[in-house]
Amino acid sequence: MRLNLSGHLSDHITFCYTGGQRLERDRPTALFIHGAGHDHSVWMLQTRYFAHHGWNVIAPDLPGHGRSSGPALKSIEDLAHWIITLAHKLGTERPVVIGHSMGALIALQVAATAPELVSQLALVGVVAPMPVAPALLDATLSNRDKAHALINQWSFAPHSQIGASGVPGINLTALNERLMERQAPGVLHTDMAACNAYRAGFDAAAQVRCPTLLLSSAQDRMTPPKALAPLATAFNTDFQPTRVVLPDAGHAMMSESPGQVLDALWAFISSQPTGQAPA
């Protein structure tokens, strides 16, 4: 699905993946937000499952990413306002908002800025603040190949880096490298700089007014579970998040452990009174 968010920060064509299904007003909606240097395809298994089990799915390519035109937006706050505009444009009512990495920061800021919009929140592979190593941030400007290699080194568990994959015949690190290569020059740096500069995470968490899942992975070296504690404690006492840690994946958990990620999201959403899990 393509649409134009006319008059907003990005007056360009936006591509949204819907899992191969039409949006229906009588269905609950899940809005998936990808991370830095990626596009909607990182959510392929999860979005298709939701779309074929009674849910509307909206998985946009952020501005300047994938099939969406325009420049990449430079701050998490601008990206959050863009997501809010997209949700209103599509007429979605209180979607579940799910984000990974940079997308999780965006989702968090969306829930803080427009708490009336979000029914449930799932933050996958997140910490706040989310500092980016200077060597990686420099490489995103000066040497894209090096940046991609560093990201693969830090994003995947050791067994994935030597060829293990839940999908036979798929090289996960090569697939991730090709995905990053498809983004326009400068997009990865803009994304990483936005993550590095975002300092509003604790304030945002305190403003969240919906059930929240913090989904981590034990072998994640970019957003390790132990670094999540400060953000987890920043949530309002009436809205303490549910924490789940997957045992066998790294930061790229949607591709390393796609079924486990889906199971964790589905179980959390189904357990909440606002979730409309199908029979």
Characteristics:
8 strands, disordered C terminus
Description:
There is one protein chain. This protein has 279 residues and is α/β, with parallel strands linked by helices. The protein has one domain (2-271): Alpha/Beta hydrolase fold, catalytic domain (Rossmann fold, 3-Layer(aba) Sandwich), CATH 3.40.50. The chain has helices at residues 44-51, 76-89, 102-113, 134-142, 144-155, 158-161, 172-181, 187-197, 201-207, 229-233, 253-256, 258-271; strands at 2-4, 13-17, 29-33, 56-60, 96-100, 120-124, 212-217, 242-246. Strands 1-2-4-3-5-6-7-8 form an eight-stranded mixed sheet, with helices on both faces. Helix 4 packs antiparallel against helix 8 (187-197). The longest helix is centred in the N-terminal third of the chain and has 14 residues, at 76-89. The relative contact order is 0.16. The model is unreliable at 274-279 (pLDDT under 50).
Helical fraction:
25-40%
Q: Uncertain spans, ≥5 residues at pLDDT below 50?
A: 274-279
Distance between the termini: 28 Å
Order of helices and strands: EEEHEHEHEHHHHHHEHEHH
**Biggest sheet details:** 8 strands, mixed
Radius of gyration: 17 Å
Whole-number average pLDDT? 93
Q: How many separate domains?
A: 1
